[in-house]
Write a structure and sequence with these properties.
There is one protein chain. This protein has 106 residues and is α+β, with helices and mostly antiparallel strands. The protein has 2 domains: 2-58, no CATH class; 68-106. It is 43% helix and 20% strand. The protein is built from 3 helices and 4 strands; from the N terminus they run ββββααα. Strands 1-2-3-4 form a 4-stranded antiparallel beta sheet, covered by helices on one side. Strand 2 (7-14) and strand 3 (19-24) form a beta hairpin. It starts with a strand and ends with a helix. The model has no long low-confidence stretch (mean pLDDT 94).
């Protein structure tokens, strides 16, 4: 993964075309980049992020920050019940208990 100014780039290699290509994964806006060497790829990633930020600024818009801190997770009712009971056993709300588990996993 590539990092620049809080943005993360995911990279893949296209063997047929002989290039690395990537996309910024932590925004809903489409930001892509490519290169034939690692150095070229890193530069293209940074340039793409900089271009995106400049574009947003020129339009008077804030860069996309799609993470509100809320997300919906659908599970089977039986699992929902088991999770609720487990959280209650530890004296926590389901939300607080799950946040702790998620923090430990990353």
């Amino acid at each position: 993964m590539l990092k620049h100014k809080g943005y993360t780039g995911r990279v893949a290699f296209d063997g047929d075309a002989g290039i690395f290509h990537g996309e910024v994964i932590d925004t809903r806006d489409v930001i892509t980049f490519q290169g034939t060497t690692v150095k070229e790829l890193q530069k293209a990633f940074q340039d793409s992020v900089e271009d995106y930020l400049a574009f947003c600024k020129s339009r008077g818009e804030a860069p996309d920050k799609p993470f509100s801190g809320k997300f919906v997770l659908r599970v089977e009712p039986e699992l929902h019940h088991k999770l609720h009971v487990k959280a209650a056993e530890q004296g926590k709300s389901l939300n607080a208990w799950l946040v702790k588990l998620l923090e430990q996993s990353v």
